[in-house]
Amino acid sequence: MAGKIDAHLADLGITLPTATAPVANYVPYVIAGNLVHISGQITMENGELKFVGKLGKDYQVEDGQKAARLCALNLVAQLKSAIGDLDKVTRVVKLNAFVNSDPAFTDQPKVVNGASDTMVEIFGDAGKHARSAVGVASLPLGVAVEIDGIFEVAN
């Protein structure tokens, strides 16, 4: 039987992607006490890279928000892989977001709202979190956005 969050995802028309395996020497998540640390998730969808390029050059804010949303959905997919039941999530604690940006681009916080809004959409008030939104010169595989996260779960 699907949990409340799984049912809510279905109501929203959201299908979580398959959690991807690491591509280097790291693990996709670490559980420490009641915190789950999810490694950085990029704009991968169904095994295909999406949103390859820079914000302010190749993409504008609205596209960046879609890229950040995809990263958020990948975070939730990894979280589900880690804990099994998303109903165990008591809080989205923090998101650290990296935006591949043209040097003149300064709207990283607006881009990352795509991920923040997704967390609130999925988890309600428990989805409200602290965050960082940082512009960087490049990201792995040239993607536009990468986001990692920390989640609190019930024991």
UniProtKB/TrEMBL annotation:
Fetch the InterPro entries from UniProt: Endoribo_LPSP/chorism_mut-like, RutC-like_sf
Query: Which residue numbers delimit the Endoribonuclease L-PSP/chorismate mutase-like domain?
Result: 8-141
**Gene3D superfamilies linked to this entry:** RutC-like
Q: Which domain of life is it from?
A: Bacteria
Query: What's the protein here called?
Result: Endoribonuclease L-PSP/chorismate mutase-like domain-containing protein
